[in-house]
Write a structure and sequence with these properties.
- 4% of the residues lie in helices and 57% in strands.
- With 196 residues, it is mainly beta.
- It has one domain: Lipid/polyisoprenoid-binding, YceI-like (Lipocalin, Beta Barrel), CATH 2.40.128.
- An 8-stranded antiparallel barrel has the order 3-5-6-8-9-10-11-12. A two-stranded antiparallel ribbon has the order 1-2.
- Strand 1 and strand 2 form a beta hairpin.
- The longest helix is centred in the middle third of the chain and has 8 residues.
- 24% of the residues are buried.
Amino acid sequence: MSATTHSTPTATRTVGGDLLPAPGTWRLDPGHTDLSFWGRHFMVTKVRGRFTGVTGAVVIADDLEDSSVEVTIDMATVESGNPTRDDHLRSAELFDVAAYPRATFRSTRVEWSGTRGTVHGDLTIHGVTREVPLEVSFEGHARDPWGGDRAIFSARTTVDREDFGITWNVALEAGGLLVSKEIRIEIDLETVLDAG
């Protein structure tokens, strides 16, 4: 995705030659936000999943390093393309959605240069909070057909699920574990500038 030619002075600004979002509150559009994850099965195959229930906002400050992010994830909305696996992901052995229905990310510090940066924040999953760095890129701005201004971002990080108390696994006869501890998280999101 790239910046479009329909930018408006109120929605974008140029900093050091780079097109960036203007200060304001940019709310996540859940219908155009993809929060996915993947781990290894049998230590080889990538198994992917995603959450469809994601809400939150990015608050862009005059100084980008004063910006903040807050996101809430409905853990029951996990989808992996296999209903049996989805039920297992929601079960007490893994996400334990009945006890921990939501996960959250709240930024604590932003480092930014050009169109990229690192957003450090507290990620809470399964009732456990750990600081996680998100490698973030601003992908561009678009004006939708209804006059809304959209800023598009992508973010990536890797976590150890056992750090969050999600420890279920099965030892393999030939060595190794059924499911990897390391989980890659990939986020592509559209945000809409609050009109007010």
